[in-house]
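Quick start: what a row looks like.
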Amino acid sequence: MKTDLDSARDYSQQIAENIRDAIISGDLPVDGRLPSEADLATRFNVSRPTVREALKRLAAQNLIRTQRGATGGAFVTRPSFEQAQEHMVTTATLLLSMNTVDFETAVEARFALERACLPLACARRTPAHLASMRAEIARQGTDGLTDEEFCASDVAFHRALVDATGNPVLSWHMAGAVEAMQPLMNMITFTARSRAQITDLHQALATALAEGDLTAANAAMDALASYTLDLGGEIRARRSARPTSRPGATG
């Protein structure tokens, strides 16, 4: 573990980076105990509060966990794909909401990524995956479903489609596309979309996967992507058509 720090950079961040690199390289094994705060402070020639801040950074990334008591301390944790997905969704949501990414770019990225899942999903889908997708299709046709509930069901449907690949690494990578990009798209298109049309396209996707028909699955995904782009264009046209108020004008 490197202990030389750059005085021009935040010490706690550098310590966290050094410990993280040691975890990734295997120098600090899973479930292994980290040196004590006092030991780390001595190694890096910093105060214990600085070390404590570095450990907080690592804990926030689910790289370490802390235990109290005589046998306590900081230990290297084994992050799960579920935990990693949470971070992926949060990061993707922040990137999309805080940076200038136009609707078409987001749609292009999301559907390009999801199309890549179709060959594996057609080959590996299980009855449980198909049952999850069909349950969401049934839910989407329920009377009185709010926009938020329809959006949640929409996300759950595509989550099941991605999980049907049977590849946890792919599911992790797709978390940002499905659970971050899709809700943001729904926020833009919900006033113009036809729930019935979306549900029909979901049904076509589920049927294609059940039959292992990749050609039909790609056709349904292409239709869904095209419909989503059309909705974005319709919303933009509506906004452009709105009359702009003149300064000083009264209602």
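That is the whole record. The radius of gyration is 24 Å. Strands lie at 64-67, 73-76.
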